[in-house]
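For concreteness, we quote verbatim a single protein encoded this way:
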Amino acid sequence: MVDAKSRIQDVPAIGRTKRRTTGIVGLNLLLDGGFPEGTLIMLYGTPVAGVDLAANQFWKGEEGEEGTYLMNDGDVDVGMIDASEMHPDLYLTQMAGKRIVVDSLSTLIVKYGIDVALKFLRNARDEIKKRNANMVFVVYTGIHQPIDMTRIMRAADVVIEFKTEIHQAEIERTLAVQKIKDAAAPQRLLPFIITDKGIEASTTSRVV
């Protein structure tokens, strides 16, 4: 169960882009309330960095708000759609609600190629903007060409990197918001831990 605090969502001021809670309380605070509505969010890191947990928490982040989780390279949990044999052209027809997750875009790239994956992102952006929804997609590091990673990042409105570093006997996990549409990216790393309930992020970020 996601911490109830992670469901906190700022009431937007007049003229300010509305925000949708990320599902992680510390990340909400870092982003001044959450993800801007109508945006595509890229989460990237290694398969054990926590990107899949963050995607899942976003999907479940607001009680009563409908969403769609398209799973194509992992175990399909209750409520998710098995997209392992689904062509990206069919994804849009399955995307219901305001919280969309594609786990993972990496699998689409490996299976269908970068151009097909980018075409899907372009079409998804139009749909997401129309509905004031948000779509999170997962990308794994170390398997794509640098030029392909660059093209994916340019297609995203928000880019968040999940980092893992080992210091002697300790594992340090942080996330960095590398890009956010129409706003300055936070100049701080956000420390987090992985628990049996998912990601718990500190509400106090250290200066980079």
Notes: The two ends are 31 Å apart (CA to CA).
